[in-house]
Amino acid sequence: MGLYVDIEKKFPEFNLKVKFESKDGVLGLLGASGSGKSMTLKCIAGLETPDRGKIVLNEKIFYDSGKNINIPIKKRKVGFLFQDYALFPNMTVNQNIGFALDNISKSEKGEIVREKINMMNLTGLSERFPSQLSGGQQQRVAIARALAINPEILLLDEPFSALDSHLRSKMEKEIVGILSTYSGSAVFVSHNRDEIYRICKNIAVIDNGVVDAYGEREEIFSNPPTLSCAKLTGCKNISKIKIIDENTVEALNWGCTIKVKDKIQGYPKYIGVRAHYIEYTYDEYGENTFSCILDSISESPFTVMINLYILEKKSPEKLKCIQWEVNKEFWNKIKNIKQPWNIYINPQKVFMVK
């Protein structure tokens, strides 16, 4: 039981070739804009037809090119939440929610619509048109419409992209609540790694039409298997390497030698460490301790990204900065300390990719 997708579809810009399986919980598709995430959802829903492959939900074949099977959209029982909500502008809230409720009596349809209106806190808005609703209200209508058909799978395509930050946070909590009680399969698409991490237990990272990595979110973020996966999951510090011995590499872009936690396997080409894992230290000579000078900073409301040059082997102009993220309170403590500063890179926190 669950969702199985193995499809290919050619486009002028790239070839979509994705394969993944989800048995429980919410699967997240993480990728940059134009990577193929939304197209994958459209293929699952039946809005687009792959060139070849197979899509199976709960042992029901939606699409199988080998068997010439392509189930129509309405028979797939898919609840689709679009980026722009896709509400019909000439229909009321009631009419939008009940649009896909076919082959049932008027009274049954009315009962389902009323139930979803109450569920999504839309009471009093049933006769309004989309243009008379706020962004959050429009999204609630879209969610109600997706749930009204009692779908076997929910597909959520960048559902917060049109909302401001405050409303986005509020709607995220609502959707998490809905998904926690939803018994079917669900696929959540986003380019926002933080949203994906908070909402989804398992993640498929899509890069240029191909599934680059698949697995549990903790493993994907802790040990991204590829360079593109490391970048898409938000790693700011990635350097080319030269292998020195089974536990040591030279980080060529940073100009330093780093010890790693495990024996090096295969032939990795890059090393990475997330900016918030770098530590300040008073120890000048410890393993993986490096003297640095400040290049620049970038401030956010509550954190500071510090760009540093490591002073181990090369002059700074030949290196790339290593980025170190700290909270504002810590920055205010260290910013006036005489340079160079010493940082520590924990071997347990670095990863290597091919």
TrEMBL record:
The cross-references to InterPro entries, in alphabetical order and at most eight, read: AAA+_ATPase (IPR003593), ABC_transporter-like_ATP-bd (IPR003439), ABC_transporter-like_CS (IPR017871), Molybdenum_import_ModC (IPR050334), P-loop_NTPase (IPR027417)
Name the domain of life this protein comes from.
Bacteria
Pfam families registered for this protein in UniProt? ABC_tran
**GO MF terms held by the record:** ATP binding; ATP hydrolysis activity
SUPFAM superfamilies named among the record's database cross-references: P-loop containing nucleoside triphosphate hydrolases
Residue intervals of the ABC transporter domain: 2-233
Q: Which UniProt keywords apply?
A: ATP-binding, Nucleotide-binding
Name of this chain's protein: Molybdenum transport ATP-binding protein ModC (TC 3.A.1.8.1)
